[in-house]
Amino acid sequence: DQQVKQNSPSLSVQEGRISILNCDYTNSMFDYFLWYKKYPAEGPTFLISISSIKDKNEDGRFTVFLNKSAKHLSLHIVPSQPGDSAVYFCAASESTGNQFYFGTGTSLTVIP
Amino acid sequence: EAGVTQSPTHLIKTRGQQATLRCSPISGHTSVYWYQQALGLGLQFLLWYDEGEERNRGNFPPRFSGRQFPNYSSELNVNALELEDSALYLCASSLVEDEQYFGPGTRLTVT
Questions:
Q1: Which residues numbered 77-96 in A keep a CB inside 8 Å of some CB on B?
Q2: Which residues of B touch A43 (CB under 8 A)?
Q3: In 3D, which of B16, B21, B6 has the Cα closest to residue B66?
Q4: With bands split at pLDDT 50, 70 and 90, how would you rate the model's confidence at B109?
Q5: Is residue A32 within 8 Å of A51, Cβ to Cβ?
Q6: pLDDT for B90-107, tens place per residue?
Q7: What helix, strand, coil percent values describe chain A, rounded to 5?
Q8: Cβ–Cβ under 8 Å, residues B6 and B93
Q9: CB-CB neighbors (< 8 A) of A105 in chain B
Q10: Which of A33, A96, A99, A101 to mutate to test the interface with B (most CBs of B within 10 A)?
Q11: Chain B contact present for A21, CB below 8 A
Q12: How far does CA A68 lie from the centroid of its chain?
């Protein structure tokens, strides 16, 4: 049973526009969330995180929003650049554990 | 600083054989995690080792096992290989809980 879901397998965005990647989770005990970026033939790299005490975390062009009541988080990339083209995974964990649950990924293509 | 390394890059085995995958964490990292990424699925948590001990395991059968050595490197062993074990196996290491650094993965193909 997939506890973390990314319902959009792919997304295409024009360069300079906003990319919004969505992630839903089912376990209300999750209180720490991360986004990873993965290029082909490479392992995922950590991008940005957010804990449940916040509803927003920003790092440069990347902002993650958390809506705990909806069990939903999103990653905003503004402005999108062609180098952002990759697969993005969201992941969640309970603070008491060290096991991360990953979504299936969203493949982002930024069109020049 | 060297990142997480995994070997081999590719591994081809036949059904029923055993596979051994290796991972070297970033220097100073004591925790190693193993994940399986099968086609169409997200990363599935397999095993977590810390300070040489297995701390947690995911929902995988016992034929998936591993160990962590005194130098914190780790092995993942898969016995009695089945066709559905074909996947990308990723290793990650961390020093603190919130950031895991991933290796490039080992592509296991079972024929």
A1: 89, 91, 93, 95
A2: 4, 90, 92, 101-105
A3: B21
A4: very high
A5: yes
A6: 999 887 655 778 888 999
A7: 5, 55, 45
A8: no
A9: 42
A10: A99
A11: no
A12: 15
Cα separation, B97 vs B51, in Å, equals: 14
Residue A84 DSSP label: G
What are the two backbone dihedrals, phi and then psi, of residue A108, each rounded to the nearest 5 degrees? Answer: -100, 130
Of A61-65, B56-60, B69-73, the poorest mean pLDDT is in B56-60
Q: Which of A2, A43, A98 is closest, CB to CB, to B97?
A: A98
Cβ-count burial of B89 within 10 angstroms (0-12 exposed, 13-18 middle, 19+ buried)? buried
Cβ atoms B77, B34 nearer than 8 A: no
* Structure tokens belonging to residue B10: 């590719």
Question: Are B18 and B79 in contact, with CB atoms under 8 Å apart?
Answer: yes
- pLDDT band of A42, cuts 50, 70, 90: confident
Amino acid at A2: Q
* Percent of chain B scoring above 70 in pLDDT: 93
Q: How far apart are the first and last CA of chain B?
A: 37
Please tell me the least confidently modeled range out of A32-36, A63-67, B35-39, B93-97. B93-97
